[in-house]
Description:
The chain is α/β, with parallel strands linked by helices. The chain has a single domain, classed as TIM Barrel, CATH 3.20.20.70. The chain has 12 helices and 12 strands. A hairpin with a 7-residue loop joins strand 10 and strand 11. Residues 17-18, 61, 137, 139-140, 190, 224, 259-262, 282-285, 380, 382 line the site of flavin mononucleotide.
Amino acid sequence: MHLGNLAVSGAGLLMTEQMAVEPEGRLTYSCAGLWSYDQVRALRPVFEFCRRYGGAKLGIQLGHAGRKGSVSVPWKGQIPLNEKQGAWLTPSPSPIPYPGRPRPTELDSDGLVRLRNCFAKAARNSLDLDADLLELHCAHGYLLHSFLTPLANKRIDRYGGSTQARTRFALEVFDAIREVWPSTRPLGVRVSATDWVDGGWTADNTVEFAAALKVRGCDYICASSGGASPDQRIPVGPGYQVPFAERIRREVGIPTMALGFITDTHQAENILSSGQADLIALGRGMLYNPRWAWHAAQELHEDVFFPFQYQRAHPIDAGRRFPKSVQNLIVQARLHCRKQSWWACLKNDSSDHRKTGTLKTGFQIRRTGSDERYRSLRTRGRRL
Ligand SMILES: Cc1cc2nc3c(=O)[nH]c(=O)nc-3n(C[C@H](O)[C@H](O)[C@H](O)COP(=O)(O)O)c2cc1C
């Protein structure tokens, strides 16, 4: 119901919540995972349903909760689980607990190899599900972010110490995924661009990391922030993380996705048209109003996916008794074009799109008039 609802929302790309790559990679006991073929089988009808009725491309986010895991669900306070509740041991670069969460165990070299393989296997499972896009979660204080940040990584081996050493494990995981994930399908990385804590991971570190990812075939960087420490001081406000997306895009020359308190149509439009980011993502805004993209398109006189069955509800059809079949045909033709250009767009070099005046996006909206441009919206699914 949740993903299906968002698949018809007009968003160009619908992203699942973080899918754990092993049981110990879940944040809570009710988080989704993609470590087994049974999970692929269970998700297949959900994906098929979204494709049959929806217009959004389908992305999967892969991750591991690391030292933040083994807690109750957010609406029960994220309290550490006890044995009776099925608590599990959480892995981490160093045995330093996130305040208020269970003490993690330090990963040894066998553990690192095993986890790399878990990520690669989950990527293969995502391919079996025919996902259009994959995103590696390296943010929000979870396992891969724990390796990046000096707040959680105190290792003295080749995975700890300098920034380069701390990024090593995440880059190895990225390589393992890129090996099994086809180059024809986008693979992005979500980062916490800063920890918002003195002595933590910084925006400079993120630029360095993004450059290393770009060389390895990363298609985009999604710039989030925070999550590694409760001491973070975040200046939350409209579009507060957009400057990170802008800086990474400018300094590394890689497409970026901006998110965080993007709620207003013109704010969203401006981020894309001013070249601050190539894609925008909405989380809470679209959970609260799943029709956000329809309303934004209407306000901007744009055209997005609208289910045929709902056509009489669209303002341009209001008052007509039946949608004309010819209108349906036009919609179909546009959808067809959109799907084709989505690929062309995402796989283009970013320098090309500036020349041609198109942006890499999750979907194309035809602007009325001569100016054809590309826009993207992304929404994040939470529960299956
Ligand atoms: C209910 C809920 C679930 C979320 N789940 C994830 C997740 O699985 N992975 C992730 O990277 N971010 C997750 N987030 C964070 C959002 O993706 C987003 O970064 C954050 O909410 C800020 O964007 P917004 O202001 O548009 O909501 C979640 C947010 C909410 C509210």
